[in-house]
Design goal:
Number of domains of chain A: 2
Helix content of chain B: 25-40%
Largest sheet of chain B: 10 strands, mixed
Shape of chain A: globular
Radius of gyration of chain A: 23 Å
CATH class of chain B: Alpha Beta
Number of helices of chain A: 18
Strand content of chain B: 5-15%
Largest sheet of chain A: 8 strands, mixed
Number of strands of chain B: 10
Number of domains of chain B: 1
Strand order of the largest sheet of chain A: 5-4-6-1-9-10-2-11
CATH topology of chain B: Alkaline Phosphatase, subunit A
Number of strands of chain A: 12
Number of helices of chain B: 13
CATH architecture of the largest domain in chain A: 3-Layer(aba) Sandwich
CATH topology of the largest domain in chain A: Alkaline Phosphatase, subunit A
Oligomer: heterodimer
Radius of gyration of chain B: 20 Å
Structural class of chain A: alpha/beta
CATH class of the largest domain in chain A: Alpha Beta
Distance between the termini of chain A: 55 Å
Amino acid sequence: MQPRDLQPQHFAGYPPEARKLVLSHLEVLRQLPLSFVPSLLREAIDYDYRFPAERSLLDRELANLNTLTPAQIGQRFEAFAKVSLSPALEEFDWINLPAQFVEQESAHLWSTHQLDAFRKAATDYGAALESATPPEPLPVTRLGIAVIGQGVSSYDGKLFRNLRQHGTWFGRIKPDQGFDQLLSAVEERARAYPVPYGHWYVDGGQAALHTPSISTVSYNGLAPARATLLKRMQAEISSPGMGPEELRTRMARLVPADLGMDKAGDPVVDRFQVKLLTEGSGTQIYSTTFGQWTTREILRRAQALTLLVRYAPRQRQRPLNELLANTKGAPELDPLGSLIDADMAAWYHWINQQRLPGSDRSAFLAWFEGHGQAVAIGPSFPKGAESSTELGLRELLNLAIR
Amino acid sequence: MTPSLYNPRTPWEISRALSRSRRDFLRGAASLALGSTLMSASPLVRAESARKKRKVIVITFGGGARDQETFAPEGQENIPNMLRELAPQSSFFTHVSNQGILGHYVATASLATGVYETLNNFSAVAPEHPTVFEYYRKDLRRPSSDAWVVAPSNGFNRIGESECRNYGVGQGARVILPKHLLSAATAGGTPDFDHLLRDNYETPLYTPQIGGSEVELQQMENILRLSVDDFMAHAKTVSSPDELSVYIARRLMQQEAPSLLWITMHDIDVAHSGAYSLYIEGIRRTDRLCLDLWKAVQSEPEYAGNTTMFILPDFGRDSDYDAGGNGFQHHRTGDPASRTTWMMTLGAGVRQGVVYDAPVQSIDLVPSLGAIMGFSAQQSAGKPIRELL
C-alpha cells in the first residue's frame, strides 16, 4: 500500500486525538513518499500520550507541510522518493505498526547501502523544517543539573574532562546541603514558570522528597515495573520461535497496566516510563544507564526547561569466575564505576541540552556530590577556566542562570 | 545548536580528520614514522618457502571501540600495551573504513569474506560469499585442522564457511565457541550464568539456535587435549569471556598450530548496556589480551618468527555528537565515527614503526591475506593493500 491510497477508515485503530490529527492532514500525507510517512505516523499514533512539546512540534510540522504546494512537496521529499523499498515493506501494515516499519526500513536501508542517502535526506528535511518553523521563545533560561558520584569518598582521576572545555571548573564548592539547595532551586523555578512537564527531577536511586510541581522519575520507584518486565522478557525468550524482531514488537506493545503501573496517576508519564524500560538498552539493569537514557529522552521529548539528575550507584557487574562460583546474595554496588558512568552521562546531558532551542543562553551545572568539585557552563562562565573561589551550590546556580 | 556542536564537514572530511588524528597521535606517542616516505621497497618476503611456513592470526578488537577511548590522546590510558609494546613494532593503518552493515556478526562475516555481507545480523546463517578460510584451504590444499575461528557464542557459529557453490560445507574453518562449550559443560547453569552466556549485547535477550561446524564439548578433549574438568577449572579463574577465548586460542596454538587463526573479541560490546566504565574496562582488557596473544606467538616455536598478526576493530561506535545515536553505547547511526577504524599489522614481513594513512576498506583484509599467504580471494570485492605487498 502507498500513502496515496490512504483512507480515513485506515486509522480506526488510532487513539482519538491521534486519529483526529491524522485525518485533518490526510490530504498532505497522501502526497508524501512511503519511505517517510511511517516516521511521521510513529509520532502521531502516540499523540494522545505525548508531551506538550512533542505535540507542538508535530502540529507545526504538519501545519508547515499543509502550506506547501504539490511542487514544493515534490522538491522537499525528492530524496526520500528516491529511496527504494522492498515489496515486503510496501505490504507491511505501516499504518498501525509504524514503529516496527521504521525498524525494518532501517535494516533494509543498511542492507541495500541506502542508509547514507537516507541520513542526508533526513538531515536536510530537518534543517528545512527548522528554518520554516522557528521555535517559540523560552519563558526562562534552560537549566540542566547533573549530580554524580554518590557514595564515593574520594577519587583521584580527573572529573568533568569533557565538560571543562565548555565552561569553568570550580574546586572549592561548599558541599553542605548541596543537593537540597539544588532541588529547592528546581522547585522554585517550577513554581515561577509553571509549564506542564517543563521541570523534572530524575533520581538513579530513591527520589528525595519534593513538591508535586515537578515531574519525577526514579529508578527505585520503578523497581516493581522493572522486575515485572524482566520476568516477562524471560518468558517471551523461552517461547518457541522467538526472535529479536518479534521480541521488540511485543515489548513495543506493552502499556503501563502490563507492568503493574495501572494505579499511577499520570498516563503521559506512565507511558513515558514504560518506554524508558522497553526501548532503552540497559535501563532495566543499571541505574546509571537508566539515569542517562531518561535524561536524553526527557530532553528530546519533553524539552525540559529544568532537569535535575542525581545518579546513584549501580549494581556491580559480576566477573565470569564469580558467576561460575554461583555465589548468591544481594547485588553489590559499584560506586566508583558509577561515578565514571555518570561523568560521561553528565557530558551527554549537556550535549542533549544543547540540541534544544535557546542553547546559546542555556546553563548547565555538574557537581561531584558531597565534594568540592563542580563545573558550570553558560554565558556567565568563561570556557576552559578554573576557579578557586569558595562558593555554595546555590550561589553557583544563581551565577549560572542570572 | 551551538557552534561547538555544529559540524559542517562532510562524512569524508570527518573520516580523514579521524585518520590524521590517529596518525599524528601515533607519531608523537609511539614514535612511528609516516609510511608514505617508506614506500620504496616491499617489506614482505615473497619467497614460496616463506609462504609455506607463514602463519597468520587475525584479532578483531571487538566489538567496536572509538578513537577517544583508544588511539586519540585522551584514550591512550586505555591501551598502554598496544601503544607502547605493539604499535612500535607494527605497520599501523590509520584509515580503515567499513561501508557495510554495522552489526558484529555481519561485519565480522564481511571481514572474513571480503564482501559487504547483507545477512541478518541476529540469525545463525552462513555468509553468502566464500570465507578466507575456504579460499585458503582450497587453493593451498590445507586440512581442516589448519584454519580455526575462536569466537563469542552464539551467532558466530556459522562464520567458518559459506554456503557458496564450489566452496562451502566442510571446506572452511573449524569454529570454537568457548562460551558455548561452557554452557554445555555446565548444562544450563544458573539464571545469572544464563545471562553471561547470552552474549549478544546488541540484542541481549536473544540467543540464536546453534548449528554449524563448531566444536562440541566431547571433541574438546581430543582436539585441545583438555578435559571438561580442566576446562571448567580454568574458566573459574578468568574474569571475562574474551579471557576464556584467549585461553582456548593458546591451547589451539599449542595443540593444532593452525596457520590461519581468527579470534573475535567481544567484551567491549558491553557498551550496549550503557555503562561507560564497563566499556572502558573492556577496552583495557582487550588491550592486555592482544599483548598476551602476541607474547604467545613469540613463545610458541611453531609461531615465533613466522607469524603475521592483524588487529582491527570490526567497526567503531557512534559519535557523541550524532543526534541519531547515544554516543558510545551503540553503532546504529552509520556516522563516520562508527565506520572509520584502524588496523595494526605486526610480525613476519611487516615493516616496524610505520603509519600509513592512505584509506583502505575492511574488505581489503581478505585479498591482502591472500596475497601474503598465496591464495586467490576471487569473489572478494576488496583489493590487496599495497603497503602490505
